[in-house]
Write a structure and sequence with these properties.
about 475 residues; alpha+beta; Lipocalin; Cathepsin B, Chain A; 2 domains; 8-stranded antiparallel beta barrel; 11 helices
């Protein structure tokens, strides 16, 4: 216990404000266990600054159990989830606790201390919550070993930066190879890609900091879920429900790594149209997220759970006119007089991180509206023109020197599903944010049923407040 108190005191002596996405790498098992949350004074508003020195006024003990149950010492029961490998959120006794996992950086060495958190935020539940405070968490009487990983050496990092600073060049042999080894989809050359630096292209596809080191596999489908999914229509598309389109127009994020913001805004736009029977066709501002959210990293990436859900519930969304899209980072310039629209009941499909599967995605999609999903982007996806996409691995089959494109996790909007009548191949219908000149007028189809590029393992939904 003394060792635990000394470690906690050490962490309390540092006041650091962290924004996602961090180099931390903490798993479900790292977080599960008995925690104490050292909390500062309550009664603050959402403008609270947790980077300042905090006076601890209380200690709250909570046990995080399998699979997502939270229990405190008074017998209150709540729930919890990890948020990728970055941190975790606990909801219990009419209060929420969210913090990022603690890490340090020294030269090339990144050390994750998963039994501790940085200073995080606590507040009441519901939309536009009140009673904010700052807290810091530590596992009780559990001595976990820190996790250490190395980043690139300075020389390699410099070389990589030089390469990524070059303009991207489409490889025609690669495109021909893609089209020759399969007939499910077609690849093509896009002029706009050759006008972008490789580093900007990586950002457009999600950004380096959005990459998920270890993605969860889809959860098993139980019999009840299988029965419910079997009763759904064979085909469904929110762009055409009895002739009505509930999906907002395709947009273009440009070279900013803001796909998470565009997908999050698109989900809330679609669900608002659905709930209002298309009487409200608001376009929300991704730039407000890029500039103003402490839950993400601007043009360097972010995660939809924290934006389509948590940010939308805690701070609300504004219309595009309140902060028009610039496609770059900057100081928060959102007009403070603008009305904010809130979303609530945000969740990973399945209830918590790691509980998602494609049957649950179909059910949520058809019942409640489009979902934000993340998937692994490979270089062949950039050249997609049409058809049902799957990763070809064509780059490995060509005599190509080096692939400068780095695999990323790209956030997009799931709007429907269907089956190709000629081949019997099941597919998802997905809205991208690369403009109407890319893909099938800004959309793409991707294989369904085999977790293609991990698209069936991480879906997020929320409930827009009308």
């Amino acid at each position: 216990m003394l060792q635990f108190l000394l470690k906690t005191a050490f962490l309390l002596s540092f006041v650091i404000l962290i924004k996602a996405d961090t180099p931390a790498n903490c798993t479900y098992e790292d977080i599960r266990g008995f925690w104490v949350f050292h909390e500062g004074p309550r009664g603050n508003d959402k403008a609270i600054n947790c980077s300042e020195k905090i006076n601890i006024t209380s200690a709250y003990y909570v046990r995080l159990e399998f699979p997502n149950t939270a229990l405190d010492l008074d017998g209150n029961v709540g729930f919890w989830t990890i948020i990728y490998n970055q941190g975790f959120e606990v909801v219990i006794n009419n209060r929420k606790y969210f913090a990022f996992s603690y890490y340090t950086e020294k030269g090339r060495e990144v050390t994750s201390f998963c039994q501790h958190t940085f200073w995080g935020w606590s507040h009441g539940t519901g939309v536009n919550p009140s009673d904010w405070s700052c807290y810091i968490g530590a596992k009780v009487d559990e001595d976990q070993k820190p996790k250490v990983h190395q980043t690139l050496s300075e020389n390699l990092l410099t070389a990589q930066q030089m390469l990524e600073n070059r303009l991207y060049q489409t490889d025609k042999d690669h495109i021909e190879k893609i089209n020759s080894i399969q007939s499910s989809w077609t690849a093509t050359h896009y002029d706009f890609l050759n006008e972008m630096k490789i580093s900007d292209l990586i950002k457009m596809a999600g950004g380096k900091k959005s990459n998920i080191i270890s993605r969860p596999k889809p959860s098993p489908i139980d019999k009840e879920t299988q029965i419910l999914a079997s009763k759904l229509p064979d085909e469904f598309d929110w762009r055409n429900v009895s002739g009505v389109n509930y999906i907002s127009p395709i947009r273009n994020q440009g070279s900013c790594g803001s796909c998470y913001a565009f997908a999050s805004m698109a989900m809330n736009e679609a669900r608002l149209r659905i709930k209002s029977l298309n009487t409200e066709q608001t376009i929300f501002s991704p730039q407000d997220i890029v500039e103003c959210s402490e839950y993400s990293q601007g043009c360097d990436g972010g995660f939809p759970y924290l934006i389509s859900g948590k940010y939308a519930e805690d701070f609300g969304l504004v219309e595009e006119s309140c902060n028009p899209y610039k496609g770059r980072d900057g100081k928060c310039s959102t007009d403070k007089s603008c009305k904010r629209r809130y979303s609530t009941k945000y969740h990973y499909v399945g209830g918590f991180y790691g509980a998602c599967n494609e049957a649950l995605m179909k059910i949520e999609l058809a019942r409640n509206g489009p979902l934000v999903v993340g998937f692994q982007v490979y270089d062949d996806f950039l050249s997609y023109r049409g058809g049902i996409y799957h990763h070809t691995g064509a780059r490995d089959l060509t005599n190509f020197k080096w692939n400068p494109f780095e695999e990323t996790n790209h956030a997009v909007l799931l709007v429907g599903y269907g089956t190709d009548k000629a081949t019997g191949q099941d597919y998802w219908i997905v809205k991208n944010s690369w403009g109407t000149g890319w893909g099938e007028k800004g959309y793409f189809r991707i294989r369904r049923g085999n977790d293609e590029c991990a698209i069936g393992s991480l879906a997020v939904g929320s409930d827009i407040v009308v």
